Amino acid sequence: MPSETSEVQSEILYEQIVPGFVAILDDAPALDENLKPMTSGGQLTMVPVGSTAVRDAIERYQPLARRIAAHGVPAGQQAFRDYASTLIAWQRLPYLDPGLPLELLPADWSGVTAGHLFAELNGHLHEPALRHAVSVIHA
Hints:
A two-stranded antiparallel ribbon has the order 1-4. The chain has a two-stranded antiparallel ribbon with strand order 2-3. It has helices at about 5-15, 50-70, 75-90, 110-135; strands at about 25-30, 40, 45, 45-50. The chain has 2 domains: about 5-50, no CATH class; about 50-135. It is mostly helical. The relative contact order is 0.14. It is elongated and about 65 Å long.
């Protein structure tokens, strides 16, 4: 990185090249060697930089939702494990949402799908996980 790069440009670059951790956009302006946004025909040149964390979470937790649909809600320790894992994954997803109206997001924005998936899993797993935790605490 050139030494004259501003702190703001460094932050923008960092947010765009660390997908799944701090990136919040699926597309972002392409940057030249001086970290300045590139344009073509007066328009910003957009490139995929992707926050893959949302899609990765869906891919990771859809099998759990399918397993629950096929075999029923787990009980006891398994319910607690599944719930804790789901909750931990869900906690970071809202930070990846750019907070824009749906009509301004890319057509393939997966945040809505992730929200529905995690709400479904929470609905299935919350109570049995809580029952297990209470039984362990009072054992």
